Amino acid sequence: MPAAGATVQASLGELATVLSGTLIGDADIVVTRIAPLETADAATISFLANPRYASQLATTAAACVIVGEAQSEAAAARGSCIVCADPYLAFARLTQWWAARKRQRPPAGVHPSAVVEPGARIHASASIGALAYVGAGAHIDADAVLGALAHVGADACVGAGTRLAPRANLGEGCRIGARGIVHGGVVIGADGFGFAPVQGRWEKIEQLGSVQIGDDVEIGANTCIDRGALDDTILEDGVKLDNLVQIGHNVRVGAHSAFAGCVGVAGSARIGRHCTAGGGAIILGHLEIVDHVHISAATVVTRSIHKPGQYSGLFPFDDNASWEKNAATLRNLHAMRERLRALEKKV
C-alpha cells in the first residue's frame, strides 16, 4: 500500500507496456508526474488528444508525449513519445494506474467510532471510516469503502469495490453495484417530490420505492437521486453524473448515459442508453428519450424524443441543425424589422 501522497516513478518502457502503446525513444527515461503540454517539464509525461493543440508539441518540455498515429512523426521529432490508437483513452488509463500507486487506500476494518447496527453484514476487506453509520440489515461487499460520516441505511447494499466519500448518504433499502464512486454530499434515496393538493394545501404521498444503481456508476458531489414513489428509481450500469444533478422519483437512466453539472430530470422520465445532457439542461417529467440522444447545455426538453441525435434550445428545443438556423435568424431579427419598416414607408 502506498503512503499518502507518495511520489510515483515510472520508466517510459513500463508505461508503454501499461498503455499497450508503441514507444519511440529511450525506455529507461523515468517520469514522476503527469501534466498538460504547456506546463510539463523534463520529469513529465503528457498527452496530445486534440489536434488544435498540436503546435504545443514544438515547445513543450515534456519527457514524453502520448500521441495518436497522426501526430507520431511530429512528436518523435521533438523527443520520446508513446503512440496509442486513442491517446485520450490512454491518458485516462494512465491516470488510473497513477492514482492506484499514489493514493493510500484506507485500511480494512471498522473504525472504533463507526456505528454498525445489529444484522449488518460487512465483508472483512471493506473499510468503514470514522463516524460512519451502517444500518441494520445493510450489506457492505468486499473492498468497499465508506468514508468518514458516510451513511448507509437499513437494508441498503454497497457493491464490491464501491467508494462512498465522506458525508455521502445511501438511504434505506437502496442499492449501488460494484466499482461505484459516490462523492461527498450525495443523497441517494431521499423522498421524491410527491404531494396531493387538497383544499389549498398539500398532502404528502409517501415514497415507498427505492433507488437501484448498477455497476461502474459515478455520482458527483451534492447530487440527489430520489427514491421512487411505488416502483424504484433506476440508474443502469456505467451512468456518470456530475455535481449538483437532480434525478427525480421513478426516473430510469439507461446504461452509459452521462449528465453534466446542474442537469435536472423530473419524475418518471425514461432516458435511454448512451445519452448525454450538457450542464443545466432540464428534462420534464413523464417523457421518453430514446438511446443515443445528446442534449445541449441549458436546453429544456418539453416533449419526448423518439429519434437519436443532438437537440438544443429554449424556444423551444429542436433538432440541433434546425435550432442553429432559427437562432441565426433570431440574431438578424432587428435588422429585418428595420428593413420591413423602410419598405412599408415606401408603400
Summarize the amount of helix as a percent range: 10-25%
Number of E-type strands = 40
Shape: flat
CATH third-tier fold name of the domain at 186-324: UDP N-Acetylglucosamine Acyltransferase, domain 1
The appropriate CATH architecture of the domain at 186-324 is 3 Solenoid
CATH level-four homologous superfamily name of the domain at 186-324? Hexapeptide repeat proteins
Number of helices: 5
Structural class: alpha/beta
Please state roughly what percent of the residues sit in beta strands, choosing from under 5%, 5-15%, 15-25%, 25-35%, 35-45% or over 45%.
Answer: 25-35%
**Low-confidence region ranges:** none
**Overall pLDDT score:** 95
Taking the sheet with the most strands, its summary is:
12 strands, mixed
Which characteristics define this entry?
single chain; 347 residues; alpha/beta; Udp-n-acetylmuramoylalanyl-d-glutamate--2,6- Diaminopimelate Ligase, Chain: A, domain 1; UDP N-Acetylglucosamine Acyltransferase, domain 1; twelve-stranded mixed beta sheet; ten-stranded parallel beta sheet; 29% strand
